[in-house]
Design goal:
The protein is an alpha+beta fold and 198 residues long. The chain has 4 helices and 10 strands. A hairpin with a 5-residue loop joins β5 and β6. This is DUF4390 domain-containing protein.
Length: 198
Amino acid sequence: MTEQGSMLRNVCNTVKTACLVFVFIFCAGSIVHGKEDASIYDMAVMNSDQDLLLYFRIKDAFTEEMVKGIESGIPITFTFYISFFQNRTNLTKTKLVSFDFDHTLSYDTLKEEYRIQFDEDGERIVTVKSLEEAQKLMAEVNDLQITDLASLGTGHKYGVGAKVRLGKKILPLNFHYIIPFRNFWEFNTEWTEIEFVR
């Protein structure tokens, strides 16, 4: 075989290898992102004696890779973005309140228990033994105070919107070089709104 033919074969092999690597990465990304249809559902607005309260849940919030990471001791955070607005017309909205908060889930490998921190409740912490219960708590929002009822007028149309970023991590320093975790774990739900007349 001539030197030119050998070089051509090497180039072809390199291209084939690059293509295989690309296919592997693409497929791996597709598998990891298999539950990126995570969505907000069961959204409801209620009121206590004094406050307007929001409730909702997230469907398909966890991927298999996220669970493996949690059980390896890597904490994850869900960031909830909330907006409360008044509908002036069909096309005009006035934002009245906007804020965000986190739910953070970590696993203690020595105690074999899951720890969930709720920032909206003054960094309240709940500890459970079951992964299923931990996932349920992470993906629920209950009794979230939006505003006080006294600030709302009567006969006006209002709305509450929410979006959740799933999988934002707080990695230990020695994990920061694991870039694929960051790429494959982070995704968002669609923005979801509910409207009502006060």
